[in-house]
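Structure in, sequence out. Go:
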């Protein structure tokens, strides 16, 4: 993040170091207990969600308010698959709504193979827009399989020089990585078109968006993309891999409860 959003993140998560010793924003698992006034969930419910500012999900147990972006697990997904939905899905949903994507529009997603990008491609396609994904050679088939009408390999072609014009251009990777490639993005915009980066606004996660993701996943219209899986003991390796900046979709960390056999 840049500018005021970077300051906001530091204020929320910690100025010089994480405010909480246990980090992690996304969880999928089974509810062990609920407060007296909680009626929306009960012990034994299989749930998934995201509650960024509370953090603490790199652990066997976490305590969240019932009002968090939390929902019952999609009936057709595992814990791991469900955990791959909230981060990219909720952020993509925020920006797709902010960009006012509509049926019939021509939308380009730059960074279409990451967690946010793979989600954006599927959400835009679901809305009936024509999707062009931009990614590396290794990810072309993945992005095409998610519903992109066309895919541009940025290692070979410059989308700003293709002659195509788009109603919406969405940078799903952030300006630090996309600055050079997106420098002339406006040259590829149609008249009245809009371009936006994930760094241009601080996304607000909504439970209603999580419920939409759940419904789309259950209908087969949205599928989570998992690159690699690690155990909690391998968490440092997981972060090192993500820091390379080349992951496809999501990296999942499994945590096995000492009193159960199911991965959380």
């Amino acid at each position: 993040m840049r500018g005021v959003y970077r300051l906001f993140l530091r204020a929320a998560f910690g100025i010089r170091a994480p405010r909480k010793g246990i980090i992690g924003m996304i969880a999928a698992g089974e509810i062990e207990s609920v407060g007296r006034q909680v009626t929306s969930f009960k012990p034994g419910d299989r749930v998934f969600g995201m509650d960024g500012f509370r953090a603490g999900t790199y652990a066997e147990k976490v305590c969240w308010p019932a009002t968090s972006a939390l929902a019952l697990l999609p009936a057709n997904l595992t814990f791991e698959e469900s955990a791959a939905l909230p981060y990219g899905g909720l952020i993509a949903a925020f920006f797709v709504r902010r960009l006012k994507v509509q049926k019939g529009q021509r939308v380009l997603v730059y960074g279409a193979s990451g967690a946010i990008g793979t989600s954006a491609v599927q959400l835009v396609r679901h809305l009936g827009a024509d999707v062009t994904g931009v990614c590396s050679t290794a990810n072309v088939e993945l992005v095409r399989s998610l519903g992109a009408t066309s895919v541009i390999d940025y290692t070979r072609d410059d989308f700003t020089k293709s002659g195509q014009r788009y109603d919406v251009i969405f940078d799903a990777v952030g300006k630090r990585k996309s600055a050079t490639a997106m420098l002339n993005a406006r040259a590829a915009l149609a008249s009245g078109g809009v371009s936006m980066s994930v760094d241009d606004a601080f996304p607000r996660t909504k439970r209603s968006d999580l419920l939409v993701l759940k419904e789309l996943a259950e209908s087969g219209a949205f599928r989570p993309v998992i690159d690699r899986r690690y155990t909690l003991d391998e968490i440092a390796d997981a972060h090192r891999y993500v820091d390379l900046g080349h992951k496809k979709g999501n990296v999942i960390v499994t945590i096995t409860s000492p009193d159960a056999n199911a991965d959380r």
